Amino acid sequence: MFTTLIKSSRHGLIAASLATAALTTPLGTSSVSAAETINMIAIDGYPARAMWVKEFTGFFIPRVNEELKKSGNYEINWQEAYGGQIVKPRGVLEGIKLGLGDIGIVTTIFHNSKLPSQGISAVTPFIAADARAVAKAVDEIAKEFPQMAKELDNENQVYLATGVVLDTYQMFSKTPINSLADLKGKKVAGAGYNLRYLEGIDGAAGVRGGLPNFYNMLQTGVVDAAMLWPEAAKTFKIAEVAPYMLKADLGAVNSKTVTVNKDVWKKLPDEVKSVLQKVAVEYRDHVASVAMDRAGASLEAYKKGGGTVVEMSVSDREAWAKSMPNIAADWAKKLDGAGAPGSDMLKAYSGKLKAAGFTPVRDWASEL
Prior knowledge:
The chain has helices at 51-69, 92-98, 131-144, 147-153, 211-219, 230-235, 262-267, 270-304, 314-323, 327-337, 342-355; strands spanning 2-4, 16-18, 20-25, 28-33, 36-43, 74-81, 103-107, 157-163, 170-173, 187-190, 205-208, 225-228, 244-247, 256-261, 308-311. The protein is α/β, with parallel strands linked by helices. The chain folds into two domains: 2-112 and 133-164 and 257-294, Bacterial extracellular solute-binding protein, family 7 (D-Maltodextrin-Binding Protein, domain 2, 3-Layer(aba) Sandwich); 170-252 and 299-367, Bacterial extracellular solute-binding protein, family 7 (D-Maltodextrin-Binding Protein, domain 2). The strands form three sheets. Strands 1, 2, 5, 6, 7, 8 and 14 form a seven-stranded mixed sheet that branches. It is globular.
């Protein structure tokens, strides 16, 4: 038995073993080689029931294993740690940076200062409520502009693909919200850039939170409403504490990015790297499709759980979009000032969605 060490670290995160056996027969000697085994720790701070984590376990990992079996040269021994076993939801970026995990799903909306370019869809609300289109457009931007990969490189990570897990943000509340006027004076839970959606509404205040604690924030009265999406509302039983949904179709947002620790990546065989990159794109499209497929069913489940849905009028959606400061232009100009192609990225992203057939309620890029 011969053992090859792929990486040695204080965490002992990646190792590979190569086993060979020689069989001797009267006709001669032949050898049978086993696949090289690579141990990888996959992490996320969210629980296993969160849709993207469930699909990472049920889709991403099996597909990687399937692809690697084609050559038989390598296999991965997966260790999965979710729901705070190693890191909390906000801790995935730091956890992978430090080598607490080898591969993981970074919730980018928690890291606007370190990963500013990942906010491109969050700063452009009211364009597209289609997770598949947004995921594809953002990932294409990441491939065409090196800025996203550069930001993750600074965090000791390699970018694989962007994920969009929400079909579109909606507003869930404890009391009925039937129009834009009803949002005045409300405290609304959100995460990251979507808190800025409230800046043009008199008296409305954004309260920073995360999906795992939105239920308690609503239940205890810390907030009056929360911005999230129907699948998450179903999974986290939001109807129990927020039985009213304003269907505003604020837009799909990329909030998940699959990354690999850079030190680990350097030691991986090229074949394994190629498989991870290929499957990450498949996972991107798969998760976006799951989000869209479940949107309708989740909305019905929300209603069955006691929820009431009111559709926001076209005029109110237009008024809301116009009331906001141009957070997309602010985002782009800040990146421009740091030497990154923010304005070019915004124009390219907007152009991709228009080409895909989406008409923005407000054309953020045209106001640059």
